[in-house]
Amino acid sequence: xxxxxxxxxxxxxxxxxxxxxxxxxxxxxxxxxxxxxxxxxxxxxxxxxxxxxxxxxxxxxxxxxxxxxxxxxxxxxxxxxxxxxxxxxxxxxxxxxxxxxxxxxxxxxxxxxxxxxxxxxxxxxxxxxxxxxxxxxxxxxxxxxxxxxxxxxxxxxxxxxxxxxxxxxxxxxxxxxxxxxxxxxxxxxxxxxxxxxxxxxxxxxxxxxxxxxxxxxxxxxxxxxxxxxxxxxxxxxxxxxxxxxxxxxxxxxxxx
Length: 256
Hints:
The chain is an alpha/beta fold. The protein has one domain: Hexapeptide repeat proteins (UDP N-Acetylglucosamine Acyltransferase, domain 1, 3 Solenoid), CATH 2.160.10. The chain has helices at about 5-15, 35-45, 220-225, 245-250, and strands at about 25, 30-35, 50-55, 65, 80, 90, 95, 100, 105, 110-115, 120, 125, 130, 135, 140-145, 155, 160-165, 170, 175, 180, 185, 195, 200, 205, 210-220, 230-240. It has a 10-stranded mixed β-sheet with strand order 5-8-11-14-17-20-25-26-22-23, with no helix packed on it. A 6-stranded parallel β-sheet has the order 6-9-12-15-18-21, with no helix packed on it. Strands 7-10-13-16-19-24 form a 6-stranded parallel β-sheet, with no helix packed on it. A hairpin with a 4-residue loop joins strand 22 (about 195) and strand 23 (about 200).
């Protein structure tokens, strides 16, 4: 565990350069949390004092936060498009080349956003979330953060996924490459995913190329709920990605 101020700053720099990550893929292809990284992120909170950051524009709003978690300051050489209007990327977050961040959006410490990804308006990329290359996070997508418990895996969205507007992903859910989530899908590791193509129920992971829409299922928690006709949210895999689907969610290179 690191404590000295210069070591903490160097640790955050390693996260920002992508040399350290809060989650990695093991030899079996499973995503696992890097507990040492998550512990040191928490340790920065413990060992960084609260200060007032003065706005550098007339009539700008001052803010108060942990000293080492000031917003990142990007340069043209970073090749990240940070559009003005209330967006913030916290120290200790990696943002790859060609990423576009529309306002307002927030990327928290420990997050990893890979090259060519679109972060649309009102998007939250929570602490330690891992977002792959060429992902589109549509308006108001919420990617939950997981700093504690230390051993819990953060939310993972792999390469070339399309995440529709108002989608919410929490509790270490894994979205495998090229998956497409329709607007309004809300998923955690405990919400069942009904694969209507392969006729099976999945928890905690969206398969590669799956096309997912929001659904519901009858409440079977006793006669009272079923008698009232209550339903519980779930998610449905209605197809797997084909050429038509890929064309409809293709990213526009001119924006990058």
